[in-house]
């Protein structure tokens, strides 16, 4: 009998498994940032403070300068003699503390952001000038920055305000001068390091102009440390402005600025301690939260600091 041939069906080739798409740069940044739980908590608190500052006119129960003569130095709602009419009590002139704290967040954040923005822009320009305009310009700018850093920051700020006069605008100018050397020196060091790398040398060989080379090639690779410094610089500026306000050289009454509120309440520290405690807590919580968020930002932008 002839042998029967058995036909074997070919084994199907398994379909290739598609590898998952890499996360977007924004998602990668958030994953790295969220590893630091303290940074996430700080970011949430900062976001709340910013929202309160932006919506102060609608969130605050009263005008910050409205006086209630029938409730001078009223106790907070949780203290003996307090009421829900003024949740955080009133100050020595009968002004609602909660309303002044909310509007004070607007003033303090405005000072911090203004100082950071002006210092960032001027620091970038001077730092790039140090790295690209030759040794004479580098030495001149660096020595001026060294001279500013040689004087204690608060003393220098007091000196500048004493010359210009106490006001909110002059406070911003004084604090900007104090913190400008940080940005200049940081960008100068980063730019000098980048100028020695191969991609910059290749751009020079290709005929890229000096200013295009500095602003389009070098500067984007120097922004990570500057962004971290800018985030931390906001909290430093808030502290410095509060110190000037406490000394009577910052924002002038009746402006609802946290340092000025501390100065107005220091004589009641024993009889009505909440008048000093509440503005102090506002400064403490805001500054600590910004610093925590800045630490998380530093870890997220620096691959060496990431946990995963």
Explain the overall architecture.
The longest helix is centred in the middle third of the chain and has 36 residues, at 97-132. The protein is mainly alpha-helical. α11 packs antiparallel against α12. The protein is 65% helix and 0% strand. It is built from twelve helices and no strands.
What are the defining features of this structure?
308 residues, mainly alpha, 65% helix
Detail the topology: elements first, then pairings.
Layout: H1 25-34, H2 37-54, H3 56-59, H4 97-132, H5 135-150, H6 153-164, H7 168-195, H8 198-205, H9 210-218, H10 223-246, H11 258-265, H12 274-301
Helix pairs in contact: 1-12, 2-4, 2-12, 4-5, 4-7, 4-10, 5-7, 6-7, 7-10, 10-11, 10-12, 11-12
The overall pLDDT average reads 84
Number of strands: 0
Number of helical stretches of at least 4 residues: 12
Q: Tell me the distance between the termini.
A: 70 Å
Given as residue ranges, the uncertain stretches (5+ residues, pLDDT < 50) are none
Radius of gyration, whole Å:
28 Å
Our estimate of the beta-strand percent is under 5%
Q: SS-based structural class?
A: mainly alpha
Order of helices and strands: HHHHHHHHHHHH
Task: Kindly state the percentage of residues in helix.
Answer: 55-70%
């Amino acid at each position: 009998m002839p042998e029967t041939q058995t036909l074997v069906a070919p084994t199907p080739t398994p379909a290739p498994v598609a590898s998952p798409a890499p996360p977007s740069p924004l998602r990668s940044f958030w994953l790295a940032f969220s590893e630091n739980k303290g940074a996430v908590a700080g970011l949430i608190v900062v976001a709340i403070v910013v929202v309160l500052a932006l919506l102060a006119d609608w969130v605050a129960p009263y005008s910050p300068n409205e006086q209630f003569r029938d409730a001078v130095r009223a106790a907070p709602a949780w203290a003996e003699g307090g009421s829900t009419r003024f949740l955080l009590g009133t100050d020595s002139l009968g002004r609602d503390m909660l309303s002044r704290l909310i509007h004070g967040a607007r003033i303090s954040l405005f000072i911090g952001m203004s100082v950071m923005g002006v210092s960032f822009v001027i620091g970038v320009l001077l730092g790039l000038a140090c790295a690209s305009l030759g040794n004479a310009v580098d030495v001149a700018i660096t020595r001026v920055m060294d001279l500013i850093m040689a004087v204690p920051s608060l003393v220098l700020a007091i000196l500048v305000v004493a010359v210009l006069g106490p006001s909110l605008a002059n406070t911003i100018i004084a604090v900007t001068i104090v913190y400008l050397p940080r940005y200049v020196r940081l960008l100068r060091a980063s730019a000098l390091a980048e100028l020695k790398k191969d991609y910059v040398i290749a751009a020079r060989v290709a005929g890229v102009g000096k200013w295009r080379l500095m602003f389009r090639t070098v500067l984007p690779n120097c922004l990570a440390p500057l962004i971290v410094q800018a985030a931390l610089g906001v909290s430093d500026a808030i502290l410095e402005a509060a110190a000037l306000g406490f000394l009577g050289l910052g924002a002038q009454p009746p402006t609802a600025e946290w340092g000025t509120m501390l100065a107005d309440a220091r004589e009641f520290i024993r009889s009505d301690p909440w008048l000093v405690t509440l503005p102090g807590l506002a400064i403490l919580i805001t500054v600590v939260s910004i610093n925590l968020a800045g630490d998380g930002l530093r870890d997220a932008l620096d691959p060496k600091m990431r946990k995963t």
